[in-house]
Amino acid sequence: MKRFISTIPIQPEGSLHKTNYLLMEDNALLKTDRTTRFPILIPLENSVSEGEKIIVTVILIDRPNVPRNYELFKEELKELSQLKKFTYEIVEVRTPDSEIAKNHLDLFKNISTLFANNRDEELYACITYGTKPMPMLLMMALTFAYKLCDSFTIESIVYGGFEHSLNQSFIYDVSSMFYLNSAVNNMANLDIEDPLKIIDGFIS
Predict the structure, then answer these.
(1) How many CB atoms lie within 10 A of CB 112?
(2) For residues 60 and 4, is the Cβ–Cβ distance under 8 A?
(3) Minimal CA–CA distance to 155: which of 128, 182, 126, 130?
(4) Own/partner pairs for 153-156, CB < 8 Å, 24+ apart?
(5) What's the pTM value of the predicted model, to 2 decimals?
(6) For residues 34 and 102, what is the distance between their CA atoms, to the nearest angstrom?
(7) What gap in Å lies between CA 134 and CA 132, rounded to an integer?
(8) Distance between CA 51 and CA 161 in Å, rounded?
């Protein structure tokens, strides 16, 4: 089953607009003519088939702006599901508005628990929104799923950015960073004379 996971934005009212995300690299998974506020909906649009059921996991930070932005997310998701004729289940993961270590660790555990209780999932994640530690937490949870759970694949990790000088939004696939980090972790267990040479092999 496909699972899509994203943090609901914390942006204040009036600052979260639909935009056309352009690609900097050729990637059919991220091509779209539709406008959206939520980059995760782009790989969702391009990977889900008619009649398919998916899971959409949302991380909800306990901030005043989040409920309003969550409603916008649900509206766009419903519209897309009607257009593409798929069904979905929303799974909420809630976290306090606090940057203390315990809350970060609790959130990591809660996301990882979702993965541990399931099997054979294709994971698509977005690291665009949330507090600054959120991308790190998501990457950690995805690593848990990829390395320690049964038959999980990391299909795409996306990031949506806005270039103010061009007044244009762009979307990027950063999955290669995830896999390179996984490779570096594996290398730590090996007796490698020149690790930079190995890294060059991955990047070139």
Answers:
(1) 19
(2) no
(3) 126
(4) 153/121, 153/122, 153/123, 154/123, 154/125, 154/178, 154/179, 155/2, 155/43, 155/47, 155/122, 155/123, 155/124, 156/29, 156/30, 156/43, 156/47, 156/124, 156/125
(5) 0.92
(6) 39
(7) 5
(8) 31
122-126 and 168-173: which strand pairing?
unpaired
Q: Which residue type, as a one-letter code, is found at position 148?
A: L
Is 38 strand, coil or helix? Answer: coil
Helix 195-203 to helix 175-187 angle, to the nearest 10 degrees? 160
Are 95 and 106 in contact, with CB atoms under 8 Å apart?
yes
SS3 197: helix
Q: 């998501």: which residue's tokens?
A: 138
* Contact status, residue 152 vs residue 115, Cβ threshold 8 Å: yes
How far is Cα 29 from Cα 46, in angstroms, rounded to an integer? 6
pLDDT over threshold 70, residue 202:
no
Quote the CA–CA distance of 32 and 112 in Å, as a whole number.
Answer: 31
User: How many CB atoms sit inside 10 A of residue 186's CB?
Assistant: 10
Q: How far apart are CA 44 and CA 184, in angstroms?
A: 29
Q: How many CB atoms lie within 10 A of CB 200?
A: 10
| pLDDT per residue as tens digits for the range 57-111 | 999 999 999 999 999 999 999 999 999 999 999 999 999 999 999 999 999 999 9
Strands (E), the chain: 2-7, 21-23, 53-61, 87-95, 122-126, 153-163, 168-173
